[in-house]
Amino acid sequence: MEKTINLWKELLPYQKKVFRSRKRIVLFIGGTGTGKTWLGARWIIVKALESTGEYLLISPSLKLMKRTLWKEVKKVLKEWEIPFEKNENDMIITLFNGSRLYGIPADNPDRMEGVHAKAGIFDEAGQVDKRIVFETAYRRLRFHNGQLLITTTPYRWNWLKELYDKAKEGDADIDLITARTIENPHYPKEEVEKAKKEMPDWRFKMFYEGVFTKPLGLVYPDYELVSPFEIPSGWLKIRGLDFGYNHPTAVLWLAKDPKTETWYAYKELKKSELTLDDLYEILKKENIPTYADPEMKQGLETLRRRGLDVRPAKKDVLPGITFVQGLFKQKKLKIFASLEKTIEELNTYSWKLDANDQPLDEVVKENDDLMDALRYALFTAEGFKAKFVYKSKMVDI
Ligand SMILES: Nc1ncnc2c1ncn2[C@@H]1O[C@H](COP(=O)(O)OP(=O)(O)O)[C@@H](O)[C@H]1O
Ligand SMILES: [Mg+2]
Predict the structure, then answer these.
(1) Residue 147 Cα, ligand 2 centroid: separation in angstroms?
(2) Which residues are in the CB-under-5-Å shell of ion ligand 2?
(3) To test the ligand 1 pocket, which listed residue (36, 38, 45, 79) has its Cβ within 8 A of the most ligand atoms?
(4) How far is CA 99 from CA 56, 95, 122, 140, 166, in A?
(5) Residues with Cβ within 6 A of ligand 1?
(6) CA-CA to 383 of 20 to 30 Å: which in 89, 94, 233, 317?
């Protein structure tokens, strides 16, 4: 007995566009409840039925995966009466035709290595700030020239915003499809109206209209990028150093143009599990003043004893941030466009927000290693001599 599934009839107009796309990257940016997960699950199952092979289901975390994409895929398979076996521990679903669907939480992208997938879906990709997950998935699809479907709401100005901009500029490999929550008739209209009343405008636009608004609460919203150039000899060079082991160690190199008094961040290092010996080998190539976290006494002393010019940094967070913000604002601090990891942190480094979305004067301690290095270097080297206006109070350091 054959069962016919008339999926096409069920698809909303913007969902049809996703199914029609033949481009390598299908970027679906939609509001909450536009049926991103609904669509993603069906899209990947259709692909897996069409051609026996390996397929990727990627979600930001294991918890989210189990609650959304993984659950939806199993639900659809049952609904469509497609025989399958599942291994919940390893998160592998095997269909009757031999196709294998791998559930991959984004915090463990290594699970994709060795897989030559024929298609992949990356649900709520915008939540994952690290570009590496997207890059790994894309690489795993190259062998079969497979498609990657990204379904997400915009969250922050991370790699996804760059991809979105590229698509808007007409990149031949990306299809951009957008939808607002209100376009899904299956989603309660009252919810959308309620959210519109209650939410700050920028947040409503992001989550219900799928628009990349600039998030409030970015610590350094107006940084400027410049094309890399050779630093002339004679410029003052310094470094900021934030030690870590499980957390990454971060080093940022800065040079100052003596004529314009402008700082340029020109080199970066961000690496986990870097030993003190490894770090020493890197730093000794250029023995310049290096401002490091004073709480890591042992590391600091060890590097110093081995002849490096390592100095304790001033760690005052708020005055330090205010100082660096001032430099950005006055265009006295610019970032080489090649510093990918620094840019990634600049795009996400944020103040905590209160229940009304008002920024608090406390930063989110996440993915901030290079931001700390930046502040240590500049604030210690020259900032702490200055006075600051902070929350309309003058702060003397
Ligand atoms: N084409 C469709 N036909 C029927 N229901 C749909 C369709 N698309 C989405 N839905 C329903 O809309 C709701 C939101 O879908 P979901 O995939 O959870 O949205 P998102 O992942 O974008 O937040 C769900 O109840 C889902 O079943
Ligand atoms: Mg979803």
Answers:
(1) 19
(2) 36-37
(3) 38
(4) 11, 5, 18, 16, 32
(5) 10-12, 15, 30, 32-38, 184, 186-187
(6) 233
Nearest to 254 by CA among 84, 394, 375, 92: 375
Set out the domains of the chain in order of their start, with CATH numbers: 7-209 (3.40.50.300), 225-395 (3.30.420.280)
On the CB side of 308, CA atoms within 13 Å amount to: 27
C-beta neighbour count of 337 within 10 angstroms: 12
Ligand 1 atom closest to the Cα of residue 31 is 22
Give 152's strand partners.
29
Which one of 11, 17, 184 would you pick to mutate in the ligand 1 pocket, going by the greatest count of ligand atoms within 8 A of its CB?
A: 184
The model's pTM: 0.73
Nearest-angstrom CA–CA distance, 317 and 334: 20
SS3 44: helix
Cα 158 to middle of ligand 1, angstroms: 26
For the CA of 10, the nearest ligand = 1
Q: What is the largest CA-CA distance in the chain?
A: 82
Give yes or no for a contact between 69 and 40, defined as CB atoms under 8 angstroms apart.
yes
Q: What is the DSSP string of 272-314?
A: SS--HHHHHHHHTTS---EEE-TT-HHHHHHHHHTT--EEEPP
> Which ligand has its closest atom nearest to the C-alpha of 29?
1
Residues 293-310: tens digit of each pLDDT = 999 889 999 999 999 999
pLDDT of residue 289: 96
Alpha helix locations (H) across the chain? 7-10, 13-20, 36-50, 62-67, 69-79, 131-140, 159-168, 189-198, 201-209, 276-283, 297-305, 317-329, 340-346, 369-381
Q: How far apart are CA 393 and CA 104, in angstroms?
A: 49
Nearest to 129 by CA among 88, 108, 158, 107: 158
Q: 6: CA distance to ligand 1 center in Å?
A: 17
Residue 386 has a pLDDT of: 52
Token digits for 249? 């160690």
Spans of the chain below 70 pLDDT: 1-3, 384-397
109: tokens are 């992208």
For 347-391, give the DSSP string: TT-BEEE-TTSPEEEEE--SS-HHHHHHHHHHHHHTGGGS-EEET
